[in-house]
Amino acid sequence: MLIVQKYGGTSVGSIERIKAVAQRVAACKAEGNQVVVVVSAMSGVTNNLTAMAHELQKEPSPREMDMLLSTGEQTTIALLSMALQSIGCPARSYTGGQVRILTDSAHTKARIQKIDQEHMRQDLDQGKVVVVAGFQGVDEQGNITTLGRGGSDTTAVALAAALKADECQIYTDVDGVYTTDPRVVDNARRLDRITFEEMLEMASLGSKVLQIRSVEFAGKYNVRLRVLSSFEDGPGTLIVSEDESMMENPVISGIAFTRDEAKISVVGVPDVPGMAFKVFGPISDANIEVDVIVQNIGADNTNDITFTVAKKDAAAASRILESVAKEMGARGVEVEDRVAKVSLVGVGMRSHAGIASRMFEALAKESINIQLITTSEIKISVVIEEKYLELAVRALHSAFGLENPPK
Amino acid sequence: MLIVQKYGGTSVGSIERIKAVAQRVAACKAEGNQVVVVVSAMSGVTNNLTAMAHELQKEPSPREMDMLLSTGEQTTIALLSMALQSIGCPARSYTGGQVRILTDSAHTKARIQKIDQEHMRQDLDQGKVVVVAGFQGVDEQGNITTLGRGGSDTTAVALAAALKADECQIYTDVDGVYTTDPRVVDNARRLDRITFEEMLEMASLGSKVLQIRSVEFAGKYNVRLRVLSSFEDGPGTLIVSEDESMMENPVISGIAFTRDEAKISVVGVPDVPGMAFKVFGPISDANIEVDVIVQNIGADNTNDITFTVAKKDAAAASRILESVAKEMGARGVEVEDRVAKVSLVGVGMRSHAGIASRMFEALAKESINIQLITTSEIKISVVIEEKYLELAVRALHSAFGLENPPK
């Protein structure tokens, strides 16, 4: 098998840990696999470099930022290659530029356009482990670019796609994807499999195991992705396309949640076209990200437009909307800044009616008031008062029997 | 004027110092010059990286070492470019590979073969300061190479040669080249000018202001080299070719010295051909560097072959020679491991007789016994007991009036 492994900053955070990673890589190779390893900067390094940059320039030049930060991964690839060689495992390191991970020129958030496989194929055929710097590439003009934070996951998936690898293994400090956050629910269960679509919903809703972008990428190029722990052995969680998943998908795969949200309502909005744009135009101009949006018509033929933002943006958003509301003849702006969002995620819910009502029933039993509801193909989200968050997650986890593996 | 400036690790050793360097560079540009800046890794960085490598591999792979160490300079170029931009001075950084400092593939000690000027010219014409990583290059296959310790000086001189710069300024922590070490002689004097040839003798004899290799390079391509301080203003010392020097060169420019040498003699060597090779072959095979070599015929038609090595190599050298001496029928091996070498250097001595006798007279006055004498075109060296070193240097400095500028 051809396997791409990716180790994050914590996994390579010290010389001892780099040695442990080398052992893991060598073991995988000893089983007869060809191995490409992608590594991040040692934990702390990127933050240190960023701090130095900010001492020099308030908004450091993006090109120079990329020049600076790319040294972090370059350091790790050299050290890991040495660690591999020292245990008799031939290895060769490459910067992003050297394997020609060609990107556009959008410094600090570049997108991969093409990957040259020639060097890697040659080394793999000679029995070498190929060690590639994550997070970085090079543009047409030869400038060093970076893919943005978490870009090492994207590098790994992109290499796996280019090499048509049998599996892309993302090693992290957790041993897989769970039905929900184990810190909230004691008997949260590690999932053996999850679909790309579910993973995307889980990731974007706060289960920060994988970068969303890398999951999208993996889904698009059908790369088998596995999340597993670099500190303990175990099968981890395999992320696959829906048809590769199971004959019968479990109805609900997991429960994601987000704290620290605020709910903002513009109430009594006249029911004429263009109102939504009048609300969200200025919010977007202020670079405030909006999460859930709900609109419904009240009895008096006026609308209430309600949405959620990160709590830190609530004050700015309501300030902007005060004048907007006046201008459009709305009754006013209401802010509720202690809300949380809880979402059930599962590709199986498509074919199952009644999931929503079971969810609402479970919450009602705990007397948790639902403030907003939104649904998508594979997810139902509710916004509730923040203090009920843990209670709600536990109630739902139990109501849908997520502690038990699917039969 | 087109000026290449080089700042060493101490000069860029902290964010504050990088800011100070930026001020100096911007000032040079504000005077109407085009400026290319070459920088080393921040002091301490290279040692840290090397220490990490040695924790992983006893003899780290040279290719991976270069991959690792080259991150040091890459960090500095990004930071210095930010510092320049933050004070309104447009700047752009380049790794060795990006300006295509093409080298051979001798990792950790690569030699520069070619430099591509295109990028640099473009930036300079657009009024930008070009910031280049010292010490590093790239080979034909795209592997990162390094030029070996002190290679940043070589980078600077090579860029100056390629760009036909008007001057190559090497900023260090001393304000120029002195007649001798000011820590030994209080009234040692900074030289306004010195010739390449003299500088080579001074450098190789222990005045470690500049790397020998960069001086050779500068001499070969006739690059005007100036050594000056990055901490205080001043004209520094200009290093020029002899014909550009002065009408009448001073007889003696300076006094160089080396401590920690050992003197080894193979005595009573039969006077037949091939004996010198029998002595130095095995020494060279053991990678021991030999400095002074003297041979003279004794009264009994046997030779004494005497040479000096670094003190740390004395034991190994004498061990090797014990058996060699037996084999070649020599009387024995004598080791004297507390010697030092003192050298008068000056291109003017070529045309002046009597320098040697004045030197010997000055030493005799202080009752310093001379153990060995060697001479070259522009230098006379003596080996003496180490404890007399300071006394000898002071006596000679005064005997040749080096505290006074030449008339």
According to CATH, the fold-level topology of the largest domain in chain A is: Carbamate kinase
Please describe the biggest sheet of chain A, giving its number of strands, its sense, and whether it closes into a barrel: 8 strands, mixed
Beta content of chain A: 25-35%
Topology, number of strands of chain A? 18
Which oligomerization state do the chains in this entry correspond to?
Answer: homodimer
Q: So, the CATH homologous superfamily of the largest domain in chain A?
A: Acetylglutamate kinase-like
How many whole angstroms does the radius of gyration of chain A measure? 24 Å
Helical content of chain A (DSSP H or I, runs of 4+) = 25-40%
Gross CATH architecture of the largest domain in chain A: 3-Layer(aba) Sandwich
Number of alpha- plus pi-helical segments of chain A = 11
List the helices and strands of chain A in order: EHEHHEEEHEEEHEEHHEEEHEEHEHEEH
Distance between the termini of chain A: 30 Å
| Largest interface in this structure | A-B, 37 and 37 residues
Low-confidence stretches of chain A: none
